[in-house]
């Protein structure tokens, strides 16, 4: 009598075809004297591993023969290796391994999943091996847990999600390709994790990760802005990453164009030979560019022109034509304060790692964003908008003045990063005023006292007087040219004022290095 009883296993699962939650019931007979079948009994796999394995392989063969859904929901399996079927494993319909427990090693080497596949909340208690495995439709590993080693090598995913998945030991993703999408949200990487030669799509999401081991992205292909400059919507956001214990995130030989570090804890992030997006001499994070385009019409025009020209060049080279519309994300966190914080943290990180040249490029980006972010932008100080007319007026005046000063700072010394600029300015001032003095016709032969006085004045303000005096053995009648001499002095003083900190900064970096 008991042998005729059905296994009482049932579980809710998300059905890919019906696109809704459904209940699945096992239709296998229960084991004699037990409540579950040989797949669902939590102990039977341990007592009769061969029997369970062979029965599982038989179920896989049945699944391969039809395009119907294959259900392995909640199975308790011993070591399984699909190569042991002795034929190419191709699942033609949807496959459900939801909540399956792989008690020992599980190998899906060479298997192909033509339909959508779910490993949601599956437990891999032994090694999980996916080598040369192909997922042609969605592959979901949401809530899956991997207790031992995990290997994904030469795997092609269409869209894959690993949301809330937990990797407790070493995880390796080598030469893995995500063609349409990859979501790794709230994923836990507790052991050493490496993504090497992995190709992420532009819309990949790696948010809320918990990292407590060394996680390396090396030679990983993250899409660049130049691939499609009009698409600024696609970003790889690394928000709210939590680092536990010795957790560390390392990027090496990777393109950082579309990576957003807003709200990421950069104290545990390292960059080794990564490529940042160079925009007009600065390392401009994509978030900052978006804020500039959104708040400054002139920048938006310039950027669109540049992008379209780039796309036309590409089309001439017969590459894929792309849409002509500029796409921007609708992200309320993209405010001036947030992007300035992001740039400053990146700058400080570069300084702390002794990468001063990179820090300089982030510094230029920071200043450019401050100078160019539109004044009319409501996004400017979203969290503490000015209250009342006086406050608004004060903010406007302050921002107007700040922008003029920043313009001057850039023109004279590229925000303290260029030594050549102030030197060129000094030479230009000396030449200009030198010529004015020389060709004014108001030159007198100086006495010694006048010469000394001019020398002193020259050192204090400018060299042109001294230089020309020595060249021509004559000095201008300074009194007659009082205003011009004062103008020269003032200009030269301004240049000295920016030249001094610029050179100090250089020396400081040299000394620290
Ligand atoms: Zn069952």
Task: Explain this structure.
With 513 residues, this protein is an alpha/beta fold. It has 3 domains: 1-147, no CATH class; 290-413, no CATH class; 420-512, no CATH class. It contains 11 helices and 34 strands. Strands 3, 6, 7, 10, 11, 14, 15, 18 and 21 form a 9-stranded parallel beta sheet that branches. Strand 31 and strand 32 form a beta hairpin. It is elongated. The model has no long low-confidence stretch (mean pLDDT 86). The structure holds zinc ion. Zinc ion is lined by residues 7, 9, 26, 28, 36-37, 39-40.
Q: What is shown here, in short?
A:
This protein has 513 residues and is an alpha/beta fold. The chain folds into three domains: 1-147, no CATH class; 290-413, no CATH class; 420-512, no CATH class.
Topology readout:
Layout: E1 10-15, E2 20-25, H1 44-47, H2 49-64, E3 70-71, E4 76-77, E5 80-81, E6 90-91, E7 95-96, E8 101-102, E9 106-107, E10 112-113, E11 117-118, E12 123-124, E13 128-131, E14 134-135, E15 139-140, E16 145-146, E17 150-153, E18 156-161, E19 166-167, E20 171-174, E21 177-183, E22 188-189, E23 193-196, E24 210-211, E25 214-218, E26 236-237, E27 242-243, E28 248-252, E29 259-260, E30 269-272, E31 278-279, E32 282-283, H3 286-295, H4 297-316, H5 336-352, H6 356-372, H7 388-413, H8 420-438, E33 443-444, H9 448-460, H10 464-472, E34 475-476, H11 482-512
Parallel strand pairs: 3-7, 4-8, 5-9, 6-10, 7-11, 8-12, 9-13, 10-14, 11-15, 12-16, 13-17, 14-18, 15-18, 16-19, 17-20, 18-21, 19-22, 20-23, 22-24, 23-25, 24-27, 25-28, 26-29, 28-30
Antiparallel strand pairs: 1-2, 31-32, 33-34
Helix pairs in contact: 3-4, 5-6, 6-7, 8-10, 8-11, 9-10
The chain binds zinc ion.
Zinc ion is lined by residues 7, 9, 26, 28, 36-37, 39-40.
């Amino acid at each position: 009598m008991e042998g005729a009883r059905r296994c009482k296993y049932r579980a809710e699962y998300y059905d890919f075809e019906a696109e809704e939650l459904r209940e699945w019931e096992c239709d296998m007979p229960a084991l004699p004297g037990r409540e579950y079948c040989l797949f669902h009994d939590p102990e039977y796999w341990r007592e009769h591993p061969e029997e369970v394995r062979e029965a599982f392989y038989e179920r896989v063969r049945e699944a391969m023969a039809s395009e119907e859904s294959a259900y392995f929901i909640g199975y308790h399996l011993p070591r399984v290796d699909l190569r042991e079927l002795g034929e190419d494993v191709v699942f033609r319909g949807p496959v459900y391994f939801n909540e399956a427990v792989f008690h020992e090693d599980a190998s899906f080497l060479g298997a192909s999943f033509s339909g959508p596949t779910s490993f949601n909340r599956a437990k891999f208690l032994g090694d999980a091996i996916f080598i040369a495995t192909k997922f042609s439709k969605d592959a979901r590993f949401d809530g899956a847990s991997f207790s031992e080693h995990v290997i994904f090598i030469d795997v092609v995913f269409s869209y894959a999600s690993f949301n809330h998945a937990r990797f407790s030991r070493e995880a390796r993703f080598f030469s893995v390709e995500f063609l349409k999408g990859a979501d790794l949200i709230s994923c836990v990487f507790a052991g050493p994790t490496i993504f090497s030669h992995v190709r992420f799509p532009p819309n990949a999401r790696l948010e809320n990760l918990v990292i407590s081991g060394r996680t390396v992205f090396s030679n990983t292909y993250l899409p660049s802005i130049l691939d499609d400059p009009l698409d600024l919507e696609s970003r790889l956001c690394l928000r709210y990453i939590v680092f536990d214990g010795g957790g560390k995130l390392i990027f090496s030989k990777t393109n950082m164009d579309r990576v957003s570090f807003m709200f990421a804890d950069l104290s545990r992030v390292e960059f080794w030979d990564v490529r940042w997006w160079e925009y007009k001499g600065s390392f401009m994070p994509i978030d900052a560019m978006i804020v500039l385009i959104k708040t400054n019409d002139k920048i938006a025009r310039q950027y669109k022109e540049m992008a379209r020209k780039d796309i036309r060049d590409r089309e001439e080279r017969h590459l894929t034509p792309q849409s002509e519309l500029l796409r921007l994300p609708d992200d309320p966190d993209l405010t001036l304060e947030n992007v300035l914080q992001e740039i400053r943290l990146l700058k400080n990180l570069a300084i702390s790692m002794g990468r001063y040249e990179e820090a300089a490029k982030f510094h230029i980006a920071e200043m450019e964003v401050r100078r160019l972010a539109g004044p009319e932008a409501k996004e400017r100080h979203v969290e503490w908008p000015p209250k009342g007319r006086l406050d608004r007026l004060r903010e406007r005046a302050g921002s107007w003045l700040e922008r003029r000063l920043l313009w001057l700072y850039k023109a004279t010394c590229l925000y303290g990063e260029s030594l050549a600029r102030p030197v060129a300015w000094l030479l230009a001032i000396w030449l200009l005023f030198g010529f004015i003095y020389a060709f004014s016709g108001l030159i007198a032969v100086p006495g010694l006292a006048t010469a000394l006085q001019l020398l002193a004045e020259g050192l204090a303000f400018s060299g042109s007087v001294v230089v020309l005096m020595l060249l021509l053995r004559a000095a201008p009648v300074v009194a007659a040219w009082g205003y011009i001499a004062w103008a020269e002095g003032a200009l030269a003083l301004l240049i000295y004022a920016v030249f001094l900190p610029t050179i100090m900064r250089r020396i400081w970096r040299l000394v620290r290095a």
